[in-house]
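Key idea: predict the complex, not the pieces.
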Amino acid sequence: MTTTSDVADRGGPGPTARSAEAGGVPPGLTVNGTAALLGADVTPHTTVLDWLRGRGLTGAKEGCAEGECGACAVLVARPATPGADDVDGAQHVATEWLAVNACLIPVAALDGQEVVTAEGLGSPDRLHPVQRELADRGGSQCGYCTPGFVCAMAAEYYRPDRAPRERDHADDPTHEDADPAEPASAPDDEHGPNGFDLHALSGNLCRCTGYRPIRDAAYALGPPGPDDAFAERRRCAPPVPRHTRLEADGARFVRPRDLAEAVALLAEHPDALVVAGSTDVGVELNLRGARPPLLVAVDRLPELRALATDGEEIVLGAALTLTEIERGLGGRVPLLAELLPQFASRLIRNGATLGGNLGTASPIGDAAPVLLALEASLVLVGPRGERTIAFADCFTGYRETVRDADELIREVRIPRPLARTTGFTKVAKRRFDDISSVSVAFALDVEGSTVTRARVGLGGVAAMPLRALATEAALEGMPWTREAVASAARVLGGEGTPVSDHRASGRYRRAMLEQSLLRLHAHHRDAGTGAGAAS
Amino acid sequence: MSALSERPASPVVGRAQPHESAALHVTGHALYTDDLTPRTKDVLHAWPVQSPHAHALVTALRTDAALAVPGVVRVLTAEDVPGINDAGVKDDEPLFPREVCFVGHAVCWVLGETQEAARRGAAAVEVGYEPLPSVVTLAEAVAAESFQGAQPTVERGDVEAGLARAAYTFHGELEMAGQEHFYLETNASLATVEDDGRIFLQCSTQHPSETQEIVAHVLGVMSSDVTVQCLRMGGGFGGKEMQPHGYAAVAALGAVLTGRPVRLRLNRTQDLTMTGKRHGFHARWRAGFDGEGRLEALEATLTSDGGWSLDLSEPVLARALCHVENAYWIPDVRVTGRVARTNKTSQTAFRGFGGPQGMLVIEDILGRCAPLLGIEPHELRRRNFYQDGQLTPYGQVITQAGHLERAWDQVTREAELERRRAAVAEFNATHEHLRRGLAVTPVKFGISFNLTAFNQAGALVHVYKDGSVLVNHGGTEMGQGLHTKMLQVAATSLGVPLERVRLAPTRTDKVPNTSATAASSGADLNGAAVKDACEQIQGRLAQVAAQRLGVPVPDVRFADGVVSGLGTTATVPWEDVVHSAYFARVQLFAAGYYRTEGVHWDSSVMRGSPFKYFAHGVAATEVEVDGFTGAYRTLRVDIVHDVGDSLSPLVDVGQIEGGFVQGAGWLTLEDLRWDESEGDQRGRLLTQSASTYKLPSFSEMPPVLTVRLLERAHEEGAVYGSKAVGEPPLMLAFSVREALRQACAAFGPEGTSVDLPSPATPEAVFWALQEAREGDVAGRGGAPVDGDVEPGAGPRPPGPDPGAPERRPESETALHELSEA
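Result:
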C-alpha cells in the first residue's frame, strides 16, 4: 500500500451503474496535438498507459504499474498554480505542463485533456532540448526508463518559475560545514545552476546509469526558446474538465458536474469509489485486480479546491494536489513544508490529493501525523450537510474513519497560531520516494525554558495514525532540557504498538520514536530563547 | 603490440560516442519486445497460474472454469508439451511442474484474447495441492543438508599451517543478501509461427542461442526450426541470461498450438516472484595475519542460496571461490563452496556472477580486523596487494599488479585522501550526532567465462554495393553499449566513418551458436569477431585498391572512408573501391570468428588460468551517518578504473558509474525479504513490488562522483587494447560499505570493530552505531582462535558474529508477525 493514496473510499462492488445520460461530447483527449476518441474497448479501468500503448505510442513504458518507477511518465496540461507567471513576470501563465504517472490514471479521467508523450516532444531528427541533452551526455543506456525521464524533465524545464540560482557550495561539494540531516541548512546539491529542481525526477528510476549523466543533462538546460510551442501553450487557457460518463465492462466512470451531483451519486451508490488523482486506485487496479463498478471523479470540483491562508484557520481543499498545496502555502506552514518534499515523488504529488491521502486512512500515510500535530480538523460534506471533525477523532481503526460512505472530504482546516517549534521525522530506507516505517510530527511551544504546549502525531506505529498523548503530557510543563527531553523520549518510545515487517523491525520503530524527540531537541536546543538552531 | 590490440591511425574506437540508439531512446522510438505487440495482429496474451505454496505436489488441475471465461482461448499444461518439459538444460526445471517448488511457481498458463481475459481465466483455474515440507532459509538448508550440485574447493598450501604460523587469527561469519535485477523492462517474449511452421521468437534475452535451444527441445523440433531475435533489452544485468528461456518456450508452445502470435510479458510482481536473483551467501571464515598485518592464511566455507533448481548456481559459486581473495596475496588458502537448495526462485547470474559475494568476504574480514590489528584499513589493504609473479589460489599468474597500485595511488592523490581523512576526523570530533567515514577499496576481477567453450564468438558483416556496411554479431544489447562499441570497431577495422556502418538486431539465423552476452565479455569476444570479418573484407578490397592505386597490396591504407597507398598521393573513395570490387566479383561479406586463446580451467581440481586478464579499479567513498536514525548519505566518490584502452569512453564511464551505484544498492539499500514463518505465507517474497523493494534513486547519487579511466593500461590480449567493463565496477561499491563501517565505528571509542550486516540499511547501520556508541568493545567478540590475542591487550577478534544474530532476529520475527497480521 502506498502513502500516495488518493481514494476517499474503497467500497466493494456496488449496484449496477445507470446507463449514461444521452448527449454530450464523446469522451476523448488530445494526444501530441491530435484529437483521439476513447474507443469501445476502453473501460473505466483502462489506464492512460495501456490506452496510449494500444494506440502504438510506445514511448511510455510499464516498469512497475504502481507509480514508483516513472517509466510511464507523460505530460498533462493543467491550470497554472496562481502566481506561476514566468520568472520575469513578463507574461501571464495560464497553463502548466505537469508530469504524471500514466500507469495509475484511468484514461476516462483525462477526458477533454491534453497529453504529451516523449514522441510528441521531439523526433529522432528533431530532438527536443531535453532529449538532446540526455542523448548527448550518456543519459540513456538501456533506454527503457528514458522516455519517462524525458517527460519528467520536460515538465521541470517548462516550470514557469524555474530561475537560475547560485549554488551555495559550488566550490566545496562535500560542504563540510553543512549538516544534510538538517533541512534548514541543507546544501543545495539538489538544484542546478539553471534552477532545475532534482526532486522533479524523484519518481523516476534508472537501473543503468547511476543518474549522474541525467543530472548533468538536467542542469545543462537553458530556458525554452522563443518559438517553443510547449512554452507558448502555457499562455493559453488550460483544458477544462468535462462532465464525463463512460460505461463499459459492467462498470462506470463518472465525473460529476458539481458537488451536488457528486453528493447525490454517493448517496445513491454508497459503494462508489471516489477518485481524485488515482494514485492509490491505480495500484489497486493494476496490482490487485480491483475492478470497482463505479468510479466518481472529484478532483476538479471547485468546492473541494479552496486554499485560504489569511484567516484564523488555514483552509486546504481536499482535492488540491500536494503540489498545489506545496506551492500555494509557500512555506507558511513549516511542518507541511518539511513534510511535502518527502511525500512520495513529484509525479505522484502532481496527482495525489490531501483528501485522498486522508480518505484511505492508511496508518503509514504521511499527512495524518502532521495534521494531528497541527490539531487540524476535517470538513465532511454529505446529503445531511456539512460537519467538522477534529482530526484526532477521525480515525477509528485500521483504514477506518468516522466518515460515512456517502460523505466527501471537503477540506482540512488548520488553526492558527501555529506552534513555534516544529519538526517532522520520516524514517524510511530511501531518502526520496519511500514509504515511512515511522513518521513523527512535533508541534511545540516553548516559552522561556519550559514546554507550554506539545502536540505529537505518529504514523507507522499502530493500526491508525495516533496522537502521542502520554508524551505530550510528559513534555508539557517540563523544562526544555536534554534530561527532561530524554525522559519524555522514553515515554514516546513506548507509544503505539509497533510491529515488525519488511520495512523495519518493531524494535527499530520504537527506537526511532525515541530518537525523533532527541533529534528535535538537538535541532531546536534554544527554542524559546529566540536563539537559532544548533546542529 | 599484438595484431588484435593494435589500433590503426585515426581509429573510430576511443572516441566518446553517445549510445547508438540514444536518439531513439529519448524520443520513445526505440522498440523493445513488448512494443511489438500492438504492431502484431491477433495476438494472444499469456497469464500464469502461480503456486501459493513454497513446496507442494499438484494433485489436480481443472481448467473448465477458465475456458468458460469470455476471451479465454486455451490453457497450456504439461500434456501439451510435445518435446521435453524442461525450461533449462539440467533437467531440473520442469516448465509445467507436477511438484511446485516455490511460491509463485507457474503451474500452467492461460491464453486469452486480451490480457484481462487471460488474467480472469487464470484466476478461474482450479489447482489441487498437497503441501510438502519446505526449506526457506540458508540455515534451514544447512540443518537439513539440503544441497545441490558440486561442492568444489579452491586450495593452495597448507591452511592449518598458515593459521598456526600467523601472529593474529580471527574468525567470523558473514551473511549477505541477494539482489533483484530490477531491469526496468520485465521479461517479455512474442512468438509467431512462419508459413512453413518455423517459429519466430522475439525475446528480451541475453542468450538468444540458448533460448532457441530450449524452445526447440520443448517443442521437440530442431534448432534450425526456431529463430530468436532480440531487438534490445531494457536492462539485463544477468537476469536475462537463463531466465527468459522458459517463458519464451511457453509463448512458442502457445503459438504452435493456436496458430496465433502469443505474447508473454511478466508484470513486475510476476517477474519478482518468478525469476531468479543474485545469490545470497553465507560465509564462515578463519583468517591469519602476521605481525605487520600481512595475510598468512584464509580458510572459508561459502554457502550460496541457490533456490529451487541449479540454474547457474555452480558457475556462480566457482567464480565466488576464484574471487574470494580479491586483490590480496594469501599464502595458504582453502575455500570450499556449496549450493543450498531452498524453496525460492532459482537464483541466477547477476552482474559480477559470484565475484561480488566472494570478494565481499575478504573485504569484510579486512574491514573488521583492521581496528583489531591497530592498522588503518587503507594501509591494511595496500599492504596486502598482490605483486607480479605471485599466483592466485587457483594458480593463475599475476602480471598487472602495477595497474592496481597506480589506480590506488591516483585515487589517493587526486581525491586528496590524506587531507580528507584529517577533515573527517575533525568533523567527527566536532559533531555530536553525525559521523563521517572515508574508505578506499580495490577491485581485481577476472575476465572470461570459466567454462572455456563459451569463450568464442561470431559475426557476419555485409558491405553493400553502395559502400554501406551492416554488422551482425552474436552479442545482445541491454544498455551496456555493446552495439555502439561494435559499430566503432567495424568502422575502425574497415577504415570508414561511423555513419557508414549500421547494426542489425541480434538474430540466431545470422550468427549461430553464440555465447550469452555475459561475463563482461561481449565487446572482447564479439569485437574480435567483427574485426576478423571486417579484416577479411578489407583484405579483399585491398587487392582491388592496389590495382587502382598502383601500389603493392601491403601498402594500401583505409582510413575515414578514403583508400590511399604508401608512396602515392592518389586516393580512392571507399565507395568507389567497393563498387569496383563488386564488378570484379569480389565477395563483399564475411563471417568473422574469434576464440580466446590461452585460457584453461580444470573444474575437477579448480585450478588453471581461467581468465584472459584481470580488470582493476579503485574507489574512495565518503559517507555521513546520522546518529539518530542510521540514515546516511554518500557525499563524494572518486574512482579510477582500468578499462585498458577504452573502445568508447562515454560508454565505459557509464558502465562504471552505473555498476558502482548498482553495487551500492546491493550493499546498502536493496533488501529482499522472504516470509520465513511457519504460516501459510511461508516462502512468499515479501518485497515483491517497486514500493517495497527499493532501488537506488536520485537520493543515493553522491553530489560528487568523479570517474577517471586508468591511463597506460593497454591490454595486449583484447580487441584494440581494451578491457571488459560490464561487471567489475559493481564491486567498487565495497568502498561505500566500508565507509559506513568506519562512520559507525567513529561513534565508539578508538579501535572499535564494527560488524555490519549486508545490506547495510539505515536500520542495520543504526544498530551497528548504537553498539559502537555503547562502547562495549572489549566485552563482545568471540574467542580468539587458539590463544593468540589477549583481549584488551591490543587487537581483539571479532568472533563468530556476535552482533548480527542479536540485530537481525527482530527483522526475522517481523516476518512471522506480518503473516499473522
